[in-house]
């Protein structure tokens, strides 16, 4: 097993995640099998209890693992399926060590950070690296590890220093991502921050083999020579990750600067040093830059102040938009701003929110927890249903569409979810525990579950290619009340997808609507740039007048309008919240590569 460790220095948000993923892409295109590990030094055992405002979205894996959003980045870039153990946290390591200590496995020794914690880290890495994640038998050839955090990462840095020594030269390559700023006063690229960063890393026992330098433009040769001299890294091993039009060009930057050759040389894999096959990435990046016609989607949620909270939803929209040859424009609408109380308290915010909703080609209500902004989401679903505007509701977005239908169409004004009103007189969404204990003391339906199509001629089944079932990822506790399903269907709301028992409702549709679809699962987690989520493709196609043609061409496998279309597109995002509008840089905005607090994500 060969290991590539990606670290960061100078400032946060340099794009370690996209760098690690792009390294994996380039090595994979050389014929190597890749797996990935993300190290997060926080004390939480996983990301499940973290607020989206605190840490961005919680990404859910097939095995039900609730992990850092960077693992979603790895899955999208590399088209792999990771496990919960691919996300290492301080909490997990300490928990495993303390469990062993309680069982007496340390034979009375004093349990310390060194060697017990550091050994546990190394053992975890070696164990997880051997687990195949690409659907093939046997372990991968290279494990790419991203190290997050700062001072709290010290036990991991010590462990990785020991690990690099133990696996030996030729099996470990350290790529250090650093910043080379350009001062506007003199217009000169400054190397001092990177010099200090490398010096500090070397002082901790880790020596970079390769420098990946973030800068606004390509490094000048004299700057490379200076970095090489003071950082003790060959000039050929210094690459520039300069600003480009879209992140799909980052693997191409690495290829063009022969980064793969440098990495393979360090890992004694020079026999694999052939030209990476990245034709698909070239096509994707090129199409991205050529997009002109826009499609406008109103994203109605409660975490609109931080776009990372809905990162996978955004990426799924991007994948689908480019597949439909449309440039995505996301209008962020805070759901609370649609509510009547806002009309009284902050009328300007109320007016702006409704103008955005009415100006959109389609509406998306994503998942969430808690009752804040629920009424605004219900109003968004009502607007889309009554005005034949394409609508996609995910998880809570589906449940609230059901509540709205019950209230408005079935004349059940007290219809509600027991999540928000435990004593609801008309409980159309109820708590249906699955039986697995979760971190919050309750039960949550997590991970991949199978959905069976019950209506063959529905839009959803056609979008999925007329298959009998699909496997999608879940993260929820509440379900549509199965006892009310006959009433709903008699009123015109179809439940076209159900679980194997027929008791859990998975997909809803209104047949005579242009596109009104809800999914209890989270289709965004399995969307890929070259394999966009069918339900998102349906939303974008309906919003851009292409759905009829798309459904007519549906066949086995994902139904897509143009299979040669490859890109994740560009989007411009605007938040209207409390009467204020602002632009968000979420990895891609206005055609520029912008790292954010969690790196840049595919």
TrEMBL record:
Pathway: Pyrimidine metabolism; CTP biosynthesis via de novo pathway; CTP from UDP: step 2/2. Residues 2-269 form the CTP synthase N-terminal domain. It catalyses: UTP + L-glutamine + ATP + H2O = CTP + L-glutamate + ADP + phosphate + 2 H(+). It is an enzyme of class 6 (ligase). Keywords: ATP-binding, Glutamine amidotransferase, Ligase, Nucleotide-binding, Pyrimidine biosynthesis. One of its GO terms (biological process) is pyrimidine nucleobase biosynthetic process. Pfam families: CTP_synth_N, GATase. Gene3D superfamilies: 3.40.50.880, P-loop containing nucleotide triphosphate hydrolases (3.40.50.300). PROSITE patterns: GATASE_TYPE_1. One of its GO terms (molecular function) is CTP synthase activity. Its EC number is 6.3.4.2. Residues 307-540 form the Glutamine amidotransferase domain. SUPFAM superfamilies: Class I glutamine amidotransferase-like, P-loop containing nucleoside triphosphate hydrolases. Belongs to the CTP synthase family. Catalyzes the ATP-dependent amination of UTP to CTP with either L-glutamine or ammonia as the source of nitrogen. This is CTP synthase. The lineage of its organism: Eukaryota, Viridiplantae, Streptophyta, Embryophyta, Tracheophyta.
């Amino acid at each position: 097993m060969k290991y590539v460790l990606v670290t960061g220095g100078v400032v946060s948000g340099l794009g370690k995640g996209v760098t690690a993923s792009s390294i994996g892409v380039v090595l994979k295109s050389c014929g190597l099998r890749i797996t990935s590990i993300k190290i997060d030094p926080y004390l939480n055992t996983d990301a499940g209890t973290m607020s989206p405002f605190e840490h961005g979205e919680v990404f859910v894996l097939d095995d039900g693992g609730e992990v850092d959003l960077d693992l979603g980045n790895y899955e999208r870039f590399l088209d792999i399926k990771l496990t919960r153990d691919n996300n290492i946290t301080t909490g997990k390591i300490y928990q495993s060590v303390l469990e062993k200590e309680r069982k007496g496995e340390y034979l009375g020794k004093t349990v310390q950070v060194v060697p017990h914690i550091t050994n546990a880290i190394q053992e975890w890495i070696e164990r997880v690296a051997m687990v195949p994640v690409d659907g093939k038998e046997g372990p991968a050839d290279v494990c790419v590890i991203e190290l997050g955090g700062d001072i709290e990462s010290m036990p991991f840095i010590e462990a990785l220093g020991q690990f690099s020594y133990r696996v030996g030269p030729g099996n470990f390559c350290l790529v250090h991502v650093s910043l080379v700023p350009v001062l506007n006063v003199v217009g000169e690229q400054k190397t001092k921050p990177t010099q200090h960063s490398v010096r500090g890393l070397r002082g901790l026992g880790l020596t970079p083999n390769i420098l990946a330098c973030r800068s606004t433009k390509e490094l000048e040769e004299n700057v490379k020579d200076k970095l090489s001299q003071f950082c003790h890294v060959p000039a050929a091993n210094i690459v520039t990750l300069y600003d480009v039009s879209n992140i799909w060009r980052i693997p191409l930057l690495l290829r063009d600067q022969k980064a793969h050759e440098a990495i393979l040389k360090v890992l004694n894999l020079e026999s694999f040093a052939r030209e990476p096959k990245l034709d698909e990435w070239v096509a994707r990046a090129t199409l991205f830059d050529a997009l002109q016609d826009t499609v406008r989607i109103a994203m109605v949620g409660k975490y609109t102040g931080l776009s990372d909270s809905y990162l996978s939803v955004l990426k799924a929209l991007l994948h689908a938009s480019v597949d439909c040859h449309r440039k995505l424009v996301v209008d962020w609408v805070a759901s609370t701003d649609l509510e009547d109380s806002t009309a009284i308290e902050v009328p300007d915010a109320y007016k702006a929110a409704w103008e955005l909703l009415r100006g959109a080609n389609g509406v998306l209500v994503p998942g969430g927890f808690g009752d804040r902004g629920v009424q605004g989401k219900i109003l968004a679903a009502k607007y889309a249903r009554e005005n034949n505007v394409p609508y996609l509701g995910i998880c809570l977005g589906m449940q609230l569409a059901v509540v709205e239908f019950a209230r408005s169409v079935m004349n059940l004004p007290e219809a509600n979810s027991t999540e928000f009103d435990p004593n609801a007189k008309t409980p159309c969404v109820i708590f249906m525990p699955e039986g697995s204990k979760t971190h919050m003391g309750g039960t949550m339906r997590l991970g991949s579950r199978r959905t069976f199509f019950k209506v063959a001629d529905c839009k959803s089944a056609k979008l999925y290619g007329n298959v009998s079932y699909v496997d999608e990822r879940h993260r929820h506790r509440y379900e549509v009340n199965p006892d009310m399903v006959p009433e709903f269907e008699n009123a015109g709301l179809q439940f076209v997808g159900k679980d194997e028992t027929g008791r859990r409702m998975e997909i809803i549709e209104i047949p005579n609507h242009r596109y009104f679809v809800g999914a209890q699962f989270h289709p965004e987690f399995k969307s890929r740039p070259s394999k966009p989520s069918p339900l998102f493709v349906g939303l974008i196609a309906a919003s851009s007048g292409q759905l009829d043609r798309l459904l007519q061409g549906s066949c086995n496998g994902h139904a897509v309008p143009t299979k040669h279309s490859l890109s994740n597109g560009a989007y411009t995002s605007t938040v209207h919240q409390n009467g204020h509008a602002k632009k968000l840089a979420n990895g891609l905005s206005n055609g520029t590569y912008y790292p954010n607090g969690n790196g840049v994500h595919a």
